[in-house]
Amino acid sequence: MKTATLANIHWFDERFEYDSKARNQKVEQACFHHFYGKKSMTIVDLGSGTGSNCLYFFEKFPAEQKWIFIETEENISEYALKRLSREGEKKGYQTKYSGDALILTKEERKIEITYRTASFLDLVDVVNLDEVDLVMASATFDLISFPQFCVFGSVLLEKKLPLLTTLNYAEINFVPEEPSDIFFIEKYESYMNRSQHFGKAMGKKCPRILVDFFQKQNAKVEFGSSIWKLEGTPAKTMNHHLVKFIEIASTMMINEDDEKNLFDTWMKEKKIKIDNGAMNTYVQYYDLFVTNE
Ligand SMILES: C[S@@+](CC[C@H](N)C(=O)[O-])C[C@H]1O[C@@H](n2cnc3c(N)ncnc32)[C@H](O)[C@@H]1O
User: Fold this and answer.
1) d(Cα 11, Cα 241) in Å, to the nearest integer?
2) Contact (CB, 8 A) for 245 and 21
3) Between β-strands 109-117 and 64-71, what pairing exists: parallel, antiparallel or unpaired?
4) Backbone angles phi, psi at 229, to 5 degrees
5) Rounded to the nearest whole angstrom, what is the distance from the C-alpha of residue 244 to the centroid of ligand 1?
6) Residue 102 and residue 93 in contact, taking contact as beta carbons nearer than 8 Å
7) For ligand 1, is residue 219 a contact (CB within 6 Å)?
8) Is the CB of 73 within 6 Å of ligand 1?
9) 8-state DSSP, 23
10) Measured between alpha carbons, how far is 183 from 95 in angstroms, rounded to an integer?
């Protein structure tokens, strides 16, 4: 089962507020500094989902931008363009929307967004990388295997393409803590690491692998933590989305009846705590900005 079908579009949108607050400012500033003075940029967003990277950055990057979304799920990309059109209008942009392309304009600003329904693992066949200034990926690389990443990372290094990758999963904690948390969090993480047709995804090892991979190739790596803070009553909806996601994933990794009973009790208690606004969840991610010049 793919992540995109496990999650849902509403969750991607719900995440936006928490993703935005989590983003590591030092890493982001390193990226802005790198492109300082540029008038136009072409950005490829890998596993672009509902377009949150673009929504977060399009007012922070230069006046002329071309975004190319690479996403395997076409319905998600279609939704992304509609979402960006809606959000652009709210920010006073004129919008021109046709099929797989959206143009947002306001005064001298022009943001063009298109999507390709493809795997970013085939990036070289899908996009002319010589015309790209920045590759971006958010909450994506933990889904692929180390050998897949090696191939992909080597292409970026060879092409000397900067990479901004954010929200790479490392760990999750609940407060208050329960004795069973570690056991069931491990079940969830084992879902991320399960055997798939391409091998095992990097899962929680992703940030460490990425930093190590690029540093050993002498690339310049700015990295730092980014944390989702889902606290109390205001985060109820997001906490419910998250534990639902964990429930579906972990259930697939539990075969024994006694483990299943314990898991059901654990889950039920978490949901009660969320309803009472009495649960905080902290998801630890890492952001990286990589250049190789
Ligand atoms: C966890 S979501 C993150 C979405 C978005 N980057 C964000 O931050 O909201 C991961 C996305 O990557 C897409 N995806 C997974 N593997 C992919 C691949 N090999 N090529 C392109 N998209 C992929 C999924 O369909 C999903 O939309």
Assistant:
1) 6
2) no
3) parallel
4) -115, 100
5) 19
6) no
7) no
8) yes
9) S
10) 49
Strands 163-175 and 280-291: antiparallel
* DSSP state at residue 228: E
Calculate the alpha carbon distances from 104 to 30, 87, 116 in Å: 26, 10, 18
Tokens 């978490």, located at residue: 270
- For residue 19, the ligand 1 atom closest to its alpha carbon is 8
For residue 42, list its beta bridge partners: 66
Angstrom distance (rounded) from CA 182 to CA 188 = 10
Per-residue pLDDT 10s for the chain (293 aa) are: 344 444 567 788 889 999 999 999 999 999 999 999 999 999 999 999 999 999 999 999 999 999 999 999 999 999 999 999 999 999 999 999 988 899 999 999 999 999 999 999 999 999 999 999 999 999 999 999 999 999 989 999 999 999 999 999 999 999 999 999 999 999 999 998 898 888 899 999 999 999 999 999 999 999 999 999 999 999 999 999 999 999 999 999 998 999 999 999 999 999 999 999 999 999 999 999 999 87
Provide Rg for the chain, Cα atoms. Answer: 19
Neighbours of 166 (CB within 10 A): 25
Round to whole Å and give the CA distance between 19 and 105.
25
Q: Residue 48: CB within 6 Å of ligand 1? A: yes
Query: For a substitution probing ligand 1, which of 69, 141, 143, 242 has the most ligand atoms within 8 Å of its CB?
Result: 143
Query: Helix, strand, or coil here: 65?
Result: strand
Question: What's this model's pTM, rounded to 2 decimal places?
Answer: 0.94
